[in-house]
Design goal:
about 80% helix; disordered N terminus; transmembrane; disordered C terminus; about 425 residues; MFS_Cyanate_Porter; mainly alpha; transmembrane helix; MFS; Growth Hormone, Chain: A
Length: about 425
Amino acid sequence: MNVAGPATRGVSTRVVLFGVLALAVNLRAALAGYPPLIETVRADLGVDAGTAGLVQSGAVLMMAVGSFVGPMIGARLGRERALGWSVGLIALGSLVRGVPALAALIAASLVIGLGIGLAGVLLTGVVKHHLAARAGAVTGGYVVSMMVGATVASALGVPLAIALGGWSFSLAVWTVPAVLAVAAWTPIARRIAEPTSAAAAAGARRALPWRDPFARRSACYQAGTSMMFYGWITWLAPYYEGQGWSPQHAGVLLAAWSVTQIPSALVVPALAERRRRWRFWASTTLACGIAGTVGAILLPQPPGIGPWLWVVLLGIGVGAGFPLGLAVIAWRTPDGHASAATSGLALGVGYVAAALAPLVMGLLIDLTGGYPAALALLVAAGLLQAGAVWRIGDHPRAGDHSADGRTVSPASRPGP
């Protein structure tokens, strides 16, 4: 399958795709390695649930900052070079997490979040510009790569802490894959980097497309799916620890949740692209996520099957949600700069909402002494996402308009 755009300039398409996937592995691993260790961190540092949630919320808030400024930084430095630097920030933050202190944990999490936010926006522009012919499939592929990193980090968080002698060393391990990814990407970026024109730089400095209806709907969509993802990635393991699961088994449950996201993220965007039925697939997978959340609240451990049914439904919902949101932006924007700007707005707003979810959920847990009220917040997030799905509809055909108001020609539509 040829996924190349015109700008790969002699670099193998597979090499460019490999570099994108290697970078993407690091865009959730550092975040996913923390939740299985929350109770251990709380006991070691003597902090409450709200403070523990603040660590994750601070990281996600910085992801929003990175998303908002990513288009401008990409225009100044070049998307390809800036993408490498952003993953370098993830490596730096992971290394600082090796210091077992609350201040170091919070500061390092902020740096990691900034790097992830920058990388997420820049990746969408790189895919649109260099791998545009199959943007949906490629987007699903790099989201799956992110999920693989998250799955491994969730499963190994507690065992690494035991083997290495502390939770801080377990978190610091994720420096290694980030450094390796930057080392692999740097020579690729030098070959494919596009010179930034004055017009492109000026366009990136303009305000984000707040007035565009599609961009606003995409922002609402990302707010819902991001709250669902970051709420569950932070509190799924602690929730089931409260149901009597050991920390190690709860970490395996979180890893299973991540694994079930992979086929959904890989297959559903490609089906939506091929069949021109974005709304159908977005609605179907979102219904699974809401059903899993409601089930986990009302009957956390059904007799005979435990929480595994809810975990599968939740995985399907959040697994497809994020790549579908990115894919529809790639389909409806005319070039890499417009894609980065629209995704910058959507991801930025989404991460602001997602940053509040772990924190507010932690506060609700402290205030109510339990999880139902906190998990009900995720049901509300799903309903917000459902409203956005209905308004966005299916991706455009000839004569429809892109996010910047241009008419979409048949040649610019995604192929079957």
